[in-house]
Amino acid sequence: MTQSYDLILKGATVVNHDGTAVRDLAVAGGRIAAIGDLSRAAAGETVDCRGLTVLPGVIDTQVHFRDPGMTHKEDLESGSLSAIMGGVTAVFEMPNTNPTTTSADALAAKVARAHHRMHCDFAFFIGGTRDNTKELPDLERLPGCAGVKVFIGSSTGSLLVEDDEGVRNILKVMRRRAPFHSEDEYRLNERNHRGSGARRAGAVPGDAFGCIGSGAQQSDISHKFHGVFFPFHRGGRLHRWRNLE
Fold first, then answer.
1. 98 with 138, same domain?
2. Which end of the chain has fewer CB atoms surrounding its CB within 10 Å, N or C?
3. Is residue 106 part of a domain?
């Protein structure tokens, strides 16, 4: 009996967990139903994809959709639509909105705003602060929570936890994943005298290569990783990602 699908993509270069190869891909009921040689199958629609590449959907773990509070820049609907158009099928959104996402009520409100508006799968980070440290073990397990995000540098208000003691207190209570915006706020402020365009990594205004960073700045961050993060690394996983934006 001939297998029938809603859609078959014929002859695409498919990138999958087992490698890259020219394959057919079938869709039924809005889901991928088969991958391989589907020359004997039938479909309501067949698309010739020779010369085209089919990739798995991307998960973007750091997006800023500015909703609520700054929707004149972007909102959950427009940001997720842009994601889908770029091949991103799931996003983790940051907590530095207005109001900040630092409580159970704020997270629930953001999840409610996302339902039936966002075009992709989503989760939201809870912001780790000095004020909600004791609540983080419960907050990080709430429905719709991607984890805890902590801003060690380059943030404002209660979201800024720039001191080692504040970071240690958060690390002590957390049980799930947590990304840290690991810039040294004290060093950033010290170098801020170079001008408004020089805040990040000691860049010099007009210097196209200055954004790559200074040795002194990276040294400060290395010290923080060794002195604050590593003592909590036992039995856990620590990934250090260097952002050269």
1. yes
2. N
3. yes
